């Protein structure tokens, strides 16, 4: 089932096209990898999907009415003196209407998400004392607690070590297998794209490419990264 389609999307800033004629499909339960060189416009496309940026050409067509879209940012080291526990931090994004308290069903859901993201043992630890991997899982939990149909990971595994990045993605993968969730992930990491992506969108200033088997795109990513290392 298609959730979202991009038809001939183009983004133009100040008379300069970042890209044109971008076509893609986000399929239910799939992980779509959004790849391309630095500055090509990946985050800008995410902003368009989030409704924060108008496209200059083409159309984004939603096939799911009122899909909840949640976002996990890149790890940032500058979260100092943030005086909340992990559990309190995760609960910040829970919608409890005008009630200042959580119902028992809401508390149960929070406990469930904290367990799914492997944070139970440290739920009462302050978030500013958590490791990078734990903090990213807390960001992920904060996104999942909103029950999204679409999860956007914007380089969410960047700056994590090998163990932490696979741990985070295993949680995402496990969750999407058990819930109605599709994922769009921006990543420069060929290991992550290879292991988790079902589909890919390779954005370029020239001809962008959408496909359902990321292998060829991963080879192109590796070639691009090797070329950059030799400059
Ligand atoms: N509102 C804006 N007005 C003008 N230019 C913009 C605007 N937003 C983004 N840009 C430019 O568009 C280009 C693409 O930016 P974007 O952050 O989307 O790239 P990216 O592919 O996500 O890069 P990276 O991989 O480095 O994170 C950049 O040159 C940026 O300066």
Structure, described:
Residues 4-230 form the ABC transporter domain. InterPro entries: AAA+_ATPase, ABC_transporter-like_ATP-bd, Metal_Ion_Import_ABC, P-loop_NTPase. With 231 residues, the chain is α/β, with parallel strands linked by helices. It has helices at 42-49, 86-91, 104-116, 132-144, 162-178, 190-196, 215-229, and strands at residues 2-13, 16-27, 31-35, 57-62, 69-72, 150-154, 182-186, 199-202, 209-211. The chain is built from seven helices and nine strands, in the order βββαββαααβαβαββα. The strands form two sheets. It has a six-stranded mixed β-sheet, sandwiched between helices. It has a three-stranded antiparallel β-sheet with strand order 2-1-4, with helices on one face. Strand 1 and strand 2 form a beta hairpin. Helix 4 (132-144) packs parallel to helix 5. The mean pLDDT is 91. The site of adenosine-5'-triphosphate has 10 residues, from helix 1.
Radius of gyration: 18 Å
Stretches where pLDDT falls below 50 for ≥5 residues?
none
* Ions, cofactors and other bound molecules: adenosine-5'-triphosphate
Largest sheet strand order: 5-6-7-3-8-9
**If you average the pLDDT, what whole number results?**
91
Helix content percent band: 25-40%
Number of strands: 9
Residue fraction in strands: 15-25%
- Report the order of strands and helices: EEEHEEHHHEHEHEEH
Biggest sheet record = 6 strands, mixed
Shape: globular
What class do helices, strands and sheet pairing give?
A: alpha/beta
Tally the helices.
7
Q: CA-to-CA gap between the ends?
A: 43 Å
GO molecular function: ATP binding; ATP hydrolysis activity
Domain ABC transporter: 4-230
Family: Belongs to the ABC transporter superfamily.
Protein name: ATP-binding cassette domain-containing protein
